[in-house]
Design brief:
Layout (H helix, E strand, L loop, with lengths): L2 H5 L4 E3 L16 E6 L4 E5 L2 E8 L5 E8 L3 E7 L7 E8 L3 E4 L2 E4 L2 E6 L3 H16 L1
Antiparallel strand pairs: 1-2, 2-3, 3-4, 4-5, 6-7, 7-10, 8-9
């Protein structure tokens, strides 16, 4: 995948974090899937969801957030249509809020998966759904 694709929001799907998230995992916790954007990542484990927000021009400052699975309210998968280049996944999570007009608004984690990686997106959706159903 080229740099331009990542800059416009398309993700690389891997099983390993570029930012060594493994060092934060608890005993028995495993990475299920890692979605890497231009610099940011969303990683799903069997216990929760990590986000890595790379900040600054040089990218030396990183914010790591962790949301336990009990805070995940929903996951949605929208397949790519005939003229779409990618599929969409959204994860509704308690605690992921931002201020809009001085009011806290719950914001889902949202990302795009290239059509060529739709099978991985469906697998990710199924794994996260199974974790939520347990």
């Amino acid at each position: 995948m080229g740099l331009f694709d990542r800059l416009i929001g398309h993700a690389d799907v891997n099983a390993k974090s570029s930012y060594n998230l493994e060092r934060f995992l608890g005993e028995g916790e495993k990475l299920i899937a890692v979605f890497r954007f231009a610099r940011d990542e969303i990683a799903v484990t069997n216990n929760g969801v990590f986000t890595v927000d790379v900040q600054g021009i040089m990218g030396s400052k990183k914010e790591y957030k962790y949301f336990p699975l009990k805070g995940v309210k929903y996951v949605s998968y929208e397949s790519a249509g005939t003229f779409d280049a990618d599929a969409d996944i959204k994860i509704g999570i308690d605690g992921n809020t931002e201020l809009v007009n001085n009011m806290p608004v719950s914001k889902p984690l949202s990302f795009k998966i290239p059509k060529s990686q739709a099978a991985e997106g469906e697998k990710f959706f199924k794994l996260l759904k199974a974790a939520l159903d347990a």
